[in-house]
C-alpha cells in the first residue's frame, strides 16, 4: 500500500480475494454523490451475506474506503470508484477507516444501522406545535372577560 496515506488505530488494511459474486459489498459516495455532508469519501453501504467481505469479517457497513490497491479514492466520482473496483484484479487490498461508534445511531455490532425517520428539527417543530396548542387552550379557558 501507499505509505503516504494517514495511519491511525482506526485505519486498517484489508486484503480480500474476489469471489464468484465479486467482493461482496456495496458502496456509496463520491464527489458527485456525497453520502456524508461535506465528505466526498466512499463508504460501505451493505455487506452481502456469504460474500468475500462477510467471510473475512473485518469490513463493516459504515466504514470509509480510503484506497484500493494503493490508489487513493480522494476526489473521485462514484462511477470512477466503481471502475477501480472492477479492474482491481482478483486480490484486492483496501485501506479502510473504521467507522466511529459516536457516528452510529444505535447499538454497535454487525447489525445494520437504523436511522430514525424523524429528524431532530422535525421533533423540535412537533414539540413547539404541541406547546402552542396547549398555550392557546390555556389562554382561551383562563381569559377574563371585562
UniProtKB/TrEMBL annotation:
Keywords: Membrane, Mitochondrion, Mitochondrion outer membrane, Transmembrane, Transmembrane helix. One of its GO terms (biological process) is establishment or maintenance of epithelial cell apical/basal polarity. Residues 13-100 form the PDZ domain. It comes from the Eukaryota. The keyword Cytoplasm does not apply. The chain crosses the membrane at residues 121-139. Binds (via the PDZ domain) to isoform 2A of SYNJ2 (via the unique motif in the C-terminus). Interacts (via C-terminus) with RALBP1. Interacts (via PDZ domain) with ACVR2A (via C-terminus) and ACVR2B (via C-terminus). Forms a ternary complex with ACVR2A and RALBP1. Interacts with MAPK12. Interacts with DLL1; enhances DLL1 protein stability, and promotes notch signaling in endothelial cells. This is Synaptojanin-2-binding protein.
Amino acid at each position: 500500500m501507499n505509505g503516504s496515506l494517514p495511519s491511525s488505530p482506526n485505519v486498517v488494511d484489508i486484503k480480500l480475494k474476489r469471489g464468484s459474486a465479486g467482493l461482496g459489498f456495496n458502496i456509496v459516495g463520491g464527489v458527485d454523490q456525497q453520502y456524508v455532508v461535506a465528505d466526498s469519501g466512499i463508504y460501505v453501504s451493505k455487506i452481502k451475506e456469504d460474500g468475500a467481505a462477510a467471510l473475512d469479517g473485518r469490513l463493516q457497513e459504515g466504514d470509509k474506503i480510503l484506497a484500493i490497491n494503493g490508489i487513493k479514492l480522494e476526489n473521485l466520482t462514484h462511477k470512477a470508484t466503481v471502475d477501480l473496483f472492477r479492474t482491481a484484479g482478483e486480490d484486492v487490498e483496501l485501506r479502510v477507516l473504521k467507522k466511529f461508534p459516536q457516528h452510529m445511531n444505535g447499538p454497535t455490532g454487525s447489525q445494520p444501522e437504523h436511522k430514525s425517520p424523524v429528524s431532530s428539527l422535525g421533533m423540535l417543530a412537533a414539540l413547539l406545535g404541541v406547546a402552542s396548542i396547549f398555550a392557546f387552550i390555556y389562554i382561551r379557558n383562563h381569559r377574563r372577560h371585562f
